[in-house]
Each structure stands twice: as C-alpha cells, then as structure tokens.
Amino acid sequence: MTPERHARLVALRHELHSAPELSRAEHATAARIAKVLRDLGADRVLTGLGGTGVAAVFDGRAAGPVLGIRCELDALPIPEENQISYVSQVPGHGHLCGHDGHMAMVLGVAMDLADRRPARGRVVLIFQSAEETGEGAIAFRAAPDFAGIAPDMVLALHNLPGLSRGHVELPTQAANCASRGARIRLTGRTAHAAAPQDGLSPARVLAELMTELAALGPGGDLREDYALTTVTHATLGAPTFGVSPGVAELWVTLRTVSDHRMQTLMAALTERVASRAVAAGLAQEISYHDVFEACTNGHEAVALLEEACRSGDVPLRLTESPQAFSEDFGQFGKSAQSAMFWLGAGEDHPRLHNPDYDFPDELIPVGTGIFTRAIHAKLG
To answer: Mean pLDDT over residues 16-41, rounded?
Structure first.
C-alpha cells in the first residue's frame, strides 16, 4: 500500500470514528461508505440491506466463484475517553470495538479492486449493520437483494488487543462462542413491609437462582463441553422501604463453544428456574435476547487465509481454540464457506469496548493486504 493510499484510508477512518452510530441507526455511516464505493467505480452498490447495510460488487473479467469480504458499521453506547483530534463527537457513543478500522481496511480492498479487477468471478464487499446486537448478519442475509449477489465464500477479521500488533491468529475450527441473554421474570404478590406474610415475595428464589444458575456454567477451557453463565443484572421490587416485593428479574448471559451445548445449557436453566418457581408458588417467564450462534471456520476458507498470510510474510499462528466473545459473522457460514481471523492490535493495547480503545492505523495495510492476496489467490 502506498503512503498516499494509507493516508487517505486513515483520514476516512478518523472521519468515521468521530461520528459513531449505534446498531440499526448507521444511516450517515452507510451513506458515506456508499459514496466512496460509487466514486471508486464499483459495478454495483446496493444499500438498505437488512436495514442500513451496504454491499459493493466488483466483477471479474470472466465467470467464476463469488468471494465476499465482510466488515461492520456499528459503534457502541459507551462514552469515549481518548484525547485525540478525531474523538467521538456524539456524546455517549464511540467506535470502541474497531469497526471504523475494519471499514477502512475493506475500503482499502475496494481501492485495490478499482485498480485491478480479478481475472474471474466476482468480489462482494459487505458492510453489515448491527453486529453488536447480533441482528445484523441475519437481516443482511434475509434482504431480497442479497440473494442475487450471495458469495460462495466469505472472509472477515476482527482486531484483537492482547495479540502482538500485526500478528494473525487463525482458528482452524470454532472461531467464536455462541451466546445469548436470558431474562428471567418471577412474579408473586406485593404486601406491606410490616406484613410480608400477606404477599408472596420472589426474594428467596431470586437469591437461590443467582447462585445456582452461575453454577450451571462454570467456564474453564474453551472445549466442546465449555459453558459459562454470567449473572449480569438483577432487580427486586421497587426502591422503597414500605413494600414487600412481588416481582423480580434476573439477567444471565449464557456462553458455549457449540450451538448444541447451548441447547443443553438452556434446557438446564429452564428446568432450574421452573423447579424453584413452582415450589415457591411463583409465576415465571424466560425470554432470550442478543442471540449469537456459534461461528465456525470452514476448511477451504482457512486454507485461503493461511496462504494469504504466508505469502505476505504476516506472522501467523493457527489455533484450535475459539474466542470467548461472540460474533454474528457465523450467519454467513450457513450458506457459504466462511472464516474469520484475528489481527493483533498489540499486547498492551486497551481492550475492546474499553473507553480508551482506539483502532491502530498501522493495521490498515496489513488487513487490506491479507484480503487482497486472498482475492487474487482465489480469483486470479
């Protein structure tokens, strides 16, 4: 990548960084991305995919496979604390996961494709909304216009603090855990605080479940039987001294390596909640939110990324262990070969979702180069 192109992409990233938009509200971000892609001469630019998603199509010179490169549009509802010239101008919102950098890298791929089209096939650049909530990839794939450009293979990356800067870690099988939030509501009957026996308080059951549900998923090594249940929020009645409570809520995040293990964990949670609630005479309800299915890398896609790293002398480590955090990229693997890799942001770099996180600009040519080499290795 030339210094001039790198500088242009850095400027674009800083522009995106300063104007973060939350999941399903990435309207200005999507419009800016679409304009850049049109200016670069993409053969087609599709907008409004699954909400605010954008796709750009670059055709090869002959028929052939369709390769997709995916990134994300959305930011986080977290105030940024960096002292930088391009700090977020939107109070309470920040690009603190690096999606601005991911977009810049895929725009770098678009610039390379504008200069040199593949010999055959087609490249589809995917700018997906709402990754942070787990809704975006499902909605993008369900968009009517997506069927006409659906890739045979899709590649993606995520930057990873804690990994040496510019190094790549490539999972050969499971890439990301499945996760979902369980919202448990227990309903009894209020009473005067002086006569709690006249009501039905869920306090005891709430306390028991906080301990028992955490024990269902103790964590440990990220192997096939891994399960982690994390209590994230609890409420009991109203903040008053005069009323014995009648309602409680418990929020628990469930996390597993596989979708099958997730189903068994959900069944165990359902049984435990029902057993405690019935014994206490409480009504109970469980709903699930922020649902992410497991993300598993395909063999052919892994081989292509491995070749792209090695041919560019990018330090690479293959691993059989997934990341504990979740990603909705796995949805693309339902209809195509797919693989995601981790690009190191630095061992001492602020962690993802920290208020002082900022994407390292020097990673832009590394990620762009891996994707571009993969494209030309597959499509010529």
So the answer is: 98
